[in-house]
Amino acid sequence: MNYFLIDKDQNYSYQKLLKDIRQSTYYYPVLITDNLYLYFKNLILSLVADQPLTLLDSDLQPSMTKNIDVRMINKTENLEKNLHSISSIENLVEKVLSSKSTVTIFTSGTTGQPKEVNHTIKTLTRYLKKNNSHSKDIWAFAYNPSHIAGLQVFFQAFANQNPIINVFNMGRNEIYSLIDKYQITHISATPTFYRLLLPKEISYPSIQRATFGGEKTEGSLFEKIQQIFPNAKMNNIYASTEAGSLFASKGDCFQIPEEIKDYIKFEENELLIHKCLLGNSKSFFLKNNYYYTGDLIEWIDKDAGLFKFKSRKNELINVGGYKVNPNEVENVILQIDGVQQTVVYGKLNSVLGNILCADIKMEKGKEITEIEIRKILSYSLQDFKIPRIIKFTDNIVLTRTGKIKRS
Amino acid sequence: MEKTVLEIINYIRKNKDLEPLENIDPKDNLRDDIGFTSFDLAELTVRIEDKFGIDIFEDGLITTIGEVYKKLKK
Questions:
Q1: What pLDDT band is residue A402 in, cutting at 50, 70 and 90?
Q2: Is residue A400 part of a domain?
Q3: Residues A84 and A152 in one domain
Q4: B39/A389 Cβ within 8 A
Q5: A402 is a domain residue
Q6: Which chain A residues are Cβ-neighbours of B42 within 8 angstroms?
C-alpha cells in the first residue's frame, strides 16, 4: 500500500485520500483541527477546487487576530467543482500544483498583531522538486502544519506521492522509533527539534537528508546530528512566511540562486526582497517595491553571492523557532495592574536556543506572583510569547540580550 | 536535592494548571510521566541551574528524573 500519512498509529493511503477527495462535496474555508489527515485533506480540497483557504494553528486563540471572522471557523462551504472527474493520484497532484486558489497564513505576529499573508501555489512551491529520484522518499513531518515550513514539507512529499510520518511535538524515543519503523529518509525541522534528539545513542542510516530551518543553527549541532544520521546530507534553508523558501545553504553559508538573483538586494547589509517573490499582504511595508526583512547578513564572498546571516535588525527573539517581539510582550505586561516597568529578553538556553524572560518592577505597595502574571498573559498571548522566567526587581538594568546595561 | 527538584517540577506544573505530584521516581519520563513540553524543559533547566549551578541539558537532552539526579550528583 502507498501510504499518504501516518499519524499516531492511524494509517491513510493515497488511495483513501483520492477516494475521500472524489466524494467530497464541501470543505472548511477556515478549519481548526488537531486531526492532521482532516487538515491535509481540507487543504487539498480547497486547492483542487480553486477555493480560498485560511490556515490557523490548532491552538490559536481566535481573539488573537482581527482578520478572522470567528463565525467562519469550522463552518462548511459547498465545493463549486465536482471532484468525481479526478482520475488518479497523479491527476490529483497535477490539479493541486496548478491550483488558482489563495492560501492565507499568518506570521507569528511580531508587530503586535499577526500579519496575514496570501500565498498562491506558486510561492508555496517555489523550489519543489518532483521527479523520479524523489519517488522513494519518506518524510518525517516535524513542523506546525499551518506554518510556511510545514506547508513546504507537505507539498514536497505530496507532489512525489511520498509517505508523511507525523513527528511534530513528539518525544525523542517516539521520534526514533518512527524513523526506524518507517525507515524515514528525509527530515526538515528547526534546530530545536534536532537538539531534542541529542545525545546520540544509536545511529539511523536511513536518513538521507536533514534540513535545518527557522532559526540560526550552531555549527556544533550539525556535527552532532551527522553522527546520529551518518548518511544524511545536511543543509540549512532560509524561508519566511512572507516569501516562502528563498535560499538553501552551501556549507555554512547561503548562496542566492541564479533564478531570483535580480530580485534580491542588500541595503546596509539588510536583506531586501522584491515584491514579485512575496505573497500578497496589505500589511507589508514596501519601499520602492522591496520588502525589508530585518535580517542582517555578512558577506563571505560577495562576487559569488555567498553570505551568512548575522542577526536581526529589530531584536526579535527566536524561542525554539518561534519569533517573539519583546515590545509586544512588554506592552501586554505593562497593562497589568501595579506593573511599573518591564523588560523582556531572551536568555541562551540549551533546549530552546533562547528562553523568554521578563524582569518586572512593581509600583510601591503592589504585589503579584509570577504564576498570576503568567495566567493573565495567557488570556492574550500565544504560549510561546509568555515569559517562562519572571523576576521581580527594583531596578531594571538588563538589555534584551540579557547583558548588564552599562549607563 | 530530590525535594528541591520536586518543588521545581511542581512549580512548573502549577503554571500549566496541573496537579502537584506527591513524589517522583527516578524512572519517571520527563515528557510522558511529568507531562513536560520542550518549553517546560527549557524552564526546568533554568530553574535547576539557578539552584544548583548546573545546566542539566548542556550535553544533550535527558529524559528521566534519574538522569537529572545523576547530573546534579556529579
A1: very low
A2: no
A3: yes
A4: no
A5: no
A6: 320, 349, 351-352, 355, 388
Predicted local confidence at residue A341, as pLDDT? 80
CB < 8 Å to A346, chain B: none
Q: Measure the CA–CA gap between A89 and A19, rounded to whole angstroms.
A: 10
Domain boundary among A236, A268, A289: A236
Contact status, residue A383 vs residue A389, Cβ threshold 8 Å: no
Which residue's C-alpha cell is 562576487? Answer: A303
A109, A253, A304, B33, B73 from A300: Cα distances, Å: 32, 8, 9, 47, 45
Q: Within a domain: residue A406?
A: no
Output the pLDDT for position A401: 47
Within this chain, do residues A187 and A86 fall inside the same structural domain, yes or no?
yes
Query: Based on the structure, what is the number of domains in chain A?
Result: 3
State residue A26's pLDDT score: 96
Residues 347-366 of A with CB under 8 A from B: 347, 349-352, 355
pLDDT digits (tens, 9 = 90+) for A301-343: 888 888 888 766 767 788 988 888 887 888 889 889 888 888 8
Asked if the Cβ–Cβ distance from B46 to A192 is below 8 Å, we say no
- The reply to whether residue A198 touches residue B60, judged by beta carbons under 8 angstroms, is yes
Same-domain check for residues A50 and A80: yes
CB contact under 8 A, A350 and B39: no
On whether residue A209 sits in a domain, the answer given is yes
Torsion-angle region of A404 (φ positive above 0: left; ψ -120 to 50: alpha; else: beta)? beta
User: Most A CBs within 10 Å: which of B27, B29, B39, B45, as the mutation test of the A interface?
Assistant: B39
**B-chain residues within 8 Å CB-CB of A350?**
45, 55, 57-58
| CATH number assigned to the domain comprising residue A385 | 3.30.300.30
Are A145 and A275 contained in the same domain?
Answer: no
CB contact under 8 A, B39 and A352: yes
Supply the range of the domain harboring residue A172.
3-236
In this prediction, residue A170 has a pLDDT band, given cuts at 50, 70 and 90, of confident
What is the C-alpha to C-alpha distance for residues A293 and A316, in angstroms, rounded to an integer? Answer: 12
Question: Which residues of chain A lie closer than 8 angstroms to B27, CB-CB?
Answer: none
Domain-terminating residue out of A208, A236, A264:
A236
- Residue A110's pLDDT band, with cuts at 50, 70 and 90, is very low
What are the DSSP E strand ranges found in A61-182? 77-78, 103-106, 116-119, 139-141, 164-166
